[in-house]
Amino acid sequence: MDLHHVGIATPEPEAMLERYRALGYTLEAEEE
């Protein structure tokens, strides 16, 4: 994933990071 590129491309990097975090936690939960 290019989180750095996404953060720079979006006007609200914090909001995007929060979405990626939510997706990450969901993926981790599904894996278990």
Descriptive notes:
- The protein has 32 residues and is mainly alpha-helical.
- The protein has one domain.
- It has two helices and no strands.
- The radius of gyration is 11 Å and the shape is rod-shaped.
- The model has no long low-confidence stretch (mean pLDDT 69).
List keywords for this structure.
Methylmalonyl-CoA epimerase; 0% strand; 2 helices; 32 residues; mainly alpha; Glyas_Bleomycin-R_OHBP_Dase
Structural class: mainly alpha
- What number is the mean pLDDT? 69
Question: Approximately what portion of the residues adopt beta-strand conformation?
Answer: under 5%
- Describe the largest sheet: none
Shape: rod-shaped
Helical percent range? over 70%
Extract low-pLDDT stretches.
none
- Compute the separation of the termini in Å: 21 Å
Tell me the count of domains. 1
Q: Helix segment count?
A: 2
Element order: H for helix, E for strand: HH
Strand element count: 0
Question: Rg, please?
Answer: 11 Å
Short overview:
The chain is mainly alpha-helical.
Secondary structure topology:
Elements: H1 3-9, H2 13-31
Helix pairs in contact: 1-2
